[in-house]
Write a structure and sequence with these properties.
about 10% strand; two-stranded antiparallel sheet; hydrolase; two-stranded antiparallel ribbon; Membrane-bound Lytic Murein Transglycosylase D, Chain A; Transglycosylase; about 210 residues; alpha+beta; Lysozyme; single chain
């Protein structure tokens, strides 16, 4: 779980000089200057370990605790690190997008932003994660694409008017399944007549959940 970050975005610690005075003659003893750290990063495998600790590796985690996604971003941390360019909340973004955003937060706040940094082996000097946040690549085994409006703004295909849940912008099958305590594969199977592609659902579609 991410900490609030209050007090973590401080600049480099400024070295102070301690003056030791002896009689009339003064001798100044200078402490070593602290240099600003370089960019901080971590490998994908490290982020996987952090996610395993934070959310049991569920990159679409939304348990109602105010933290979202595999790395348990708070909405404020997600926004501060630029995650909203991918999705409104972390659990609605792909694994790659969450890692790319986490890299920025790590660079700003350091490993201490995550309660599971120690258990996940997250440090300030790891190799940068080689991820593609554009949407391609492995995203943890569940569908990640957000909902898309059709060109006419209507529900395409045979989305129909049946079902007890209306898809909203930003929803994924995984996020809907997680919020209702069901498996996304089971949800897809129950709604195959309305959802041909598990990676593509549309606002306004009616799905049968549960």
């Amino acid at each position: 779980m991410l900490f609030s970050g209050n007090g973590r975005n401080r600049g480099p610690v400024k070295a102070t000089r301690l003056a030791v005075l002896s009689g009339v003659v003064g001798a100044a003893v200078a402490l070593p200057m602290v240099t600003a750290p370089g960019a901080q990063a971590a490998s994908v495998s490290t982020w996987d370990k952090v996610a395993e600790c934070e959310s049991s590796g569920d990159w679409q985690a939304n348990t109602g605790n105010g933290h979202y996604g595999g790395l348990q971003f708070s909405n404020s941390s997600w926004e501060a690190a630029g995650g909203t360019k991918y999705a409104p909340r972390a659990d609605q973004a792909t694994k790659e997008q969450q890692i790319a955003t986490a890299e920025k937060l790590l660079d700003r706040q350091g490993p201490g932003a995550w309660a599971c940094a120690g258990e996940g082996g997250l440090t300030a000097d790891g190799a940068p994660a080689d991820v593609d946040p554009s949407g391609s690549g492995d995203s943890g085994g569940s569908p990640q694409h957000e909902t898309h409006d059709s060109d006419q703004g209507e529900t395409p295909g045979d989305g129909g008017g049946k079902g007890n849940y209306t898809v909203k912008a930003g929803d994924t099958l995984a996020s809907i399944a997680s919020s209702h305590g069901v498996d996304w594969k089971e949800l897809h199977e129950d709604n195959k007549s309305a959802v041909d592609d598990a990676d593509l659902i549309h606002p306004g579609q009616k799905l049968q959940v549960g």
